[in-house]
TrEMBL record:
InterPro entries: B-gal_small/dom_5, Bact_Beta-galactosidase, Beta-gal/glucu_dom_sf, Gal_mutarotase_sf_dom, Galactose-bd-like_sf, GH, GH-type_carb-bd, Glyco_hydro_2
PANTHER family, per database record: BETA-GALACTOSIDASE
Catalytic reactions of this protein: Hydrolysis of terminal non-reducing beta-D-galactose residues in beta-D-galactosides
GO terms under cellular component: beta-galactosidase complex
Protein name listed in UniProt: Beta-galactosidase
Gene3D superfamilies registered for this protein in UniProt: 2.70.98.10, Galactose-binding domain-like, Glycosidases, Immunoglobulins
A GO biological process held by the record: lactose catabolic process
Gene: lacZ
Record carries keyword Hydrolase: yes
Top-tier EC class: hydrolase
Amino acid sequence: MSFRTTATSVDYVEDVSPGSGALPPRAWYASSDAQSLSLNGGWSFRLSPTADAEDDSFAAEGYDAGGWAEVSVPGHWVLQGDGAFGSPIYTNHLYPFPVDPPRVPTENPTGDHLRYFDLPEGWPADGGAVVRFDGVESCARVWLNGTEIGEFKGSRLPHEFTVGHLLKPTDNVLAVRVHQWSAGSYLEDQDQWWLPGIFRDVTLLHRPVGSAVDFFVHASYDHVGSLGTLRVDSDVDGRVLVPALDIDVATGEPVTVAVVPWTAETPKLYDGELVTAGERVPLRIGFRTVALEDGLLKVNGKAILFKGVNRHEWHPVKGRALDVETMREDVLLMKRHNINAVRTSHYPPHPAFLDLCDEYGLWVIDECDLETHGFTEQNWRDNPVDDDRWTPALLDRAARMVERDKNHPSVVIWSLGNEAGTGRGLTAMAEWIHGRDSSRLVHYEGDWNCRDTDIYSRMYAEHAEVERIGQGLDGGTHKRRALPFIQCEYGHAMGNGPGGLADYQRVFEAYERLQGGFIWEWIDHGVTHPKLGFAYGGDFGEELHDGNFVCDGLIFPDRTPSPGLLEFKKVIEPVRIEGDGAGGTVRVRNAFDFADLSSLSFEWSYQVDGKTVEHGPLPVPALAPGESAEVKLPQPPSGGPGGEALWTVRALLAEDTAWGKKDHQVAWAQLPVTERPLPTVVPGDGPTASEKLIYLGPASFDVRTGALKTIGGVDVTGLRLDVWRAPTDNDDGASWQDDTRYGLLWRKYGFHRMQHRLDGVELGEDALTVRTRVAPAAWEIGLRTTYRWTSDGTRLKLTVSVDPEGDWTIPLPRLGIRFGLSSADAVKWYGGGPGEGYPDTKSASMLGRWHSTVDELQTPYVRPQENGARPDVRWAELGGLRVDGDPEFWFTARRWTTEQLDAAEHLTDLRPGDTVWVNLDHGQMGIGSQSCGPGALPQYHLLAEPTEFSFVFSTTE
Ligand code: IPT
């Protein structure tokens, strides 16, 4: 039985073909002299619930759209109109519709768009014109002045249509019908929000007679002779001019001259022009040669190391409709954090982003708009990339990417797409790309045998496996064994983390075959929300969603760097500073691949107990890449107070650069000289008891429970052992990782509901001893915990002894004490800072004297979780108390309890209470990357074992 009686006019929506009517793909450029008209701005808009709810009469000239709404183009309609136009949907890899390719649901939100325009004054009457769409999700049908000009799919790819014959001087109307779902949606199952709309620019381009159509700039570099060879192949003959190089040559003719090469570290671009009879086209030429040589990816003869990130396009208000200033902000932030590479996960970005990568210098893996991840749920049955009917669409996507972006020196690798399984269609794409552009490598992570690819790539491989790959002990096909390795995704930056980056970097730098990796991912895709702060999956009532898995970036949705970015910056710093502080020398190594150190100046400072006593410039030679030098430090300042002493050596920008100001810190290290003297308290008078209280030095305790009540004039509540932290996303782990998801195991074993049994309060000669057993209901495991209090009359010392009992098979979240203070705001400490750090995320933590406030100590992870601990703290002051640690401790203070933090789902759920809750931890569990990758390495596990630690309390007033 068939309910569809007639073929409707919307059959193209479910057609696997890429579309009809569009011009062949070509290079994307802004002409110097041909006119263009931006059609961005306010468009009339009407939303219908299905693809065919409305006929196409709206496209006719003279149609009255008076009652229509308006949306901004570029934009996504679901992010406009305050919910009147539907809402965004977030799924990771699940298709939010039944998997029945190429069919899509009847409920298919369809946005009709109308844009009226007049040609600008002086628009030439000769030649032709094209209208270009740079990105429309996911399928569009287009009319100009009532004539249909075509339909297309391929959301993040450009499509152009010839329109010159239809244009009028005035009262033109461009009509675009956009369907949210189409056959193309099956190819666009990236882990991100589903956001329909015309989300990139729409431009009308005049095409003069004799204008350039397509051209391919071949600009290679011979590093032996320092020579560049330029050849511009052009569909339309013309001349190629590069004044700085005295080049004036015909298209198609090669010319070889001495040049400065382009690299991501030294992004030298030469301005040139392609001149055809009808048009002048600006060229920005970077000479560089990418090659696979000796099993390595080399640029200009040298193996490079990617210190990269995966970048999705994201803006918390505009979604994937980014303006150039936001793109520039991304690039500047990357450069300022020592990042040298971007994988454009998982689609070609707005073309302007690649211009910025050329200009500021970033290696780019340009990835095609292709992912069919949801087919994994059906064991990859019917995967479009293994079904010949879809191959034309795949080839169309490959061509639209390569042709658009081929003239960017920053693009060194083409990527076929992401998480699309395996299949003949991918092979066809790789073959086509290899044939079209032999000057770059081809990447695809899903191809573990490297049948189609030139580089072995994996995601989230654990440290040990990466090391085996580095050693060449991973086996694999013959072809793979001869290829370099990258991790196209690692270090899952969801919530607090990622941990273990320094350990990866050590492995990357130890083995030539390992050419680095790309953190997942650059930015949290949180959506600005009136009630929730930033919304994530599920906040729009989606029927299927993947929660806050969409917030896994190194920067928060508003582009504030998260601690993960600062950690990454330190771990990948391009100058290595090591040495023996006591010996008075420092070894400086240039870890750049191409740049010498002439752009940096160095400075030393000498700290005693966190206070800088002297500083000065450190002369360091302009080392070549890979070179190192021993540099003598000055004589340590004399006469200073005896305490913990260390050198801090910094590498700073010597001058303003395109991306950073003079004195911007690039790299640093601290070299210990003398150790810290530990605090001592010589016990004086012992405890005395009254009817209600026990007194010991400055403190009073409850006589019955031994609970601390006051220190000097400061009230202290609830001081006790604490093992619970609000699990991080990395603690909770991803659903497919079952055995060691400690966040879940901690809950199972009741670490969030430990009971504290009082076993004795003993008044000794010089100490008050409180004996307890801390254990969860239902389980036999427990922690015998003894609090031993002593005082020298003014200061109060607490020694906590912990003895685990029972069969402990999992690590602890944290181990320390917590207590409440009735008022506290300003905070000072001497220890790691200025930001947070955990056992495997504290490379960027610098020892010093820091000050902050309780509010500013919090790291605003979009989904609240453990955060804000300052590591290696020697002493801290807040709320009238000073605490000295023996040994150093982790310090956390917040206006809510851990239980409240744990319960919160959005930052707006956290309401400050009257008490400031302080945690002083002897240990914290590592963070790892298990929200998608491996968990914390064993050396960062906080094991339950017999432990003792002390704090000395005094008052600051
Ligand atoms: C991997 C995806 O490639 C990426 O898009 C993102 O979803 C990431 O995971 C998690 O945030 S795929 C995963 C199954 C390893």
